[in-house]
Amino acid sequence: MKKLTIKDIANHFGVSISTVSKALNDSYEISVSTKEKIQKFAKEKNYKPNFNALSLKNRKTKIIGILIPNMLNYFFAQVFKGVEKVANEKGYKIISCISNESLEKEAETLEMLSNGSIDGVILSMAEETEVKNEYTHFKNTINDGIPIVMFDRVAESIPCDKIITNDFDGAVNAVQHLSKTGHKKIAFISTLSHLNVGRLRHQGYLKGLEKENIALNIDYIINIKEDDYKEYENVLTPIFEKLDIDAVIATDESSAIAAMKVAIRQGYKVPDDFSVIAFSNGILARHSSPKLTTVSQHGEQMGATAAEFLINKLESTNAEETTETIVIKTDIVERKSTKPLFLN
Amino acid sequence: MKKLTIKDIANHFGVSISTVSKALNDSYEISVSTKEKIQKFAKEKNYKPNFNALSLKNRKTKIIGILIPNMLNYFFAQVFKGVEKVANEKGYKIISCISNESLEKEAETLEMLSNGSIDGVILSMAEETEVKNEYTHFKNTINDGIPIVMFDRVAESIPCDKIITNDFDGAVNAVQHLSKTGHKKIAFISTLSHLNVGRLRHQGYLKGLEKENIALNIDYIINIKEDDYKEYENVLTPIFEKLDIDAVIATDESSAIAAMKVAIRQGYKVPDDFSVIAFSNGILARHSSPKLTTVSQHGEQMGATAAEFLINKLESTNAEETTETIVIKTDIVERKSTKPLFLN
DNA sequence: ATGAAAGCGCTAACAT
DNA sequence: ATGTTAGCGCTTTCAT
Question: Is B343 on the interface with A (CB under 8 A)?
Answer without folding.
Answer: no
